Amino acid sequence: MVSIVATIKVKPGQEASFEKVAKELQDKVAANEPGCEYYRLHRAPEPATYVFIERYKDQAAIDAHRKTDHFRALGKEMGQFMDGPPQVLVLQEA
């Protein structure tokens, strides 16, 4: 199993717009990616900060996720609301 923790800072005042697109992506991942076991958006305690927590069966499932049309399109759309690139932590299950 591989887990990803992606921390995202959002531009002030763009939280609702970001959440709308991020939740659409969350729903599409759940409906279309059998290799992804968990993909959820969380609000962090810091203002305008979100965390995606993701869990995949293996690296192939991550690669497939990154190639999907919904990830590419909605990821690009989310980018307009982000205040810089996400901080991404990839964890291998022990």
Question: Can you walk through the features of this model?
Answer:
Keywords: Monooxygenase, Oxidoreductase. This protein is α+β, with helices and mostly antiparallel strands and 94 residues long. It has one domain (2-92): Alpha-Beta Plaits. The protein has helices at 15-32, 59-67, 69-79, and strands spanning 2-9, 36-43, 49-56, 87-92. The protein has a 4-stranded antiparallel beta sheet with strand order 2-3-1-4, with helices on one face. The longest helix has 18 residues, at 15-32. It is globular and about 35 Å long. The termini are close together. The model has no long low-confidence stretch (mean pLDDT 96).
Key words describing this protein structure:
single chain; 94 residues; alpha+beta; Alpha-Beta Plaits; 3 helices; AI-2_Isomerase_LsrG; monooxygenase
Question: Helices and strands in order, then pairings?
Answer:
Elements: E1 2-9, H1 15-32, E2 36-43, E3 49-56, H2 59-67, H3 69-79, E4 87-92
Antiparallel strand pairs: 1-3, 1-4, 2-3
Helix pairs in contact: 1-3
Helical segment tally?
Answer: 3
Extended strand count: 4
- Give the overall shape: globular
The low-confidence runs, each spanning 5 or more residues with pLDDT under 50, are: none
Helix content: 40-55%
Largest sheet strand order: 2-3-1-4
**Reported CATH architecture:** 2-Layer Sandwich
Work out the radius of gyration: 13 Å
Order of helices and strands: EHEEHHE
Quick one: biggest sheet? 4 strands, antiparallel
The chain-level mean pLDDT equals 96
How widely separated are the two ends? 9 Å
Instruction: Give the count of structural domains.
Output: 1
Percent strand equals: 25-35%
Q: Quickly name the level 1 CATH class.
A: Alpha Beta
Which fold name is given in CATH as the topology? Alpha-Beta Plaits
* Computed structural class: alpha+beta
